[in-house]
Design a protein that fits this description.
Order of helices and strands: HEHEH
Strand content: 15-25%
Distance between the termini: 38 Å
Helix content: 40-55%
Radius of gyration: 15 Å
Number of helices: 3
Length: 83
Amino acid sequence: MQNPDCASIRRQVERYPGCKIGFAVYRLSYTDDVQWAKFMQHLNIRTRLDLDGEGDGDLFAHIDWDVQEDPSLEDADKAEVRR
């Protein structure tokens, strides 16, 4: 059975070829750039593996991480980030 979220994304991709599916990622720690790079690498690997496992690996090419970096948000909680 196809994942309904992936099916919805696939319909958008078919309707708008070349589109990107954006997901916001907020960086809330700036103490270790190496750790941040490892986190982003892990996020990409896990996302690709999960999509591959669902039979939707081709959708990975459409993912666009909208990384928000703002040192004033260091250690902010969800409520602060939402403002």
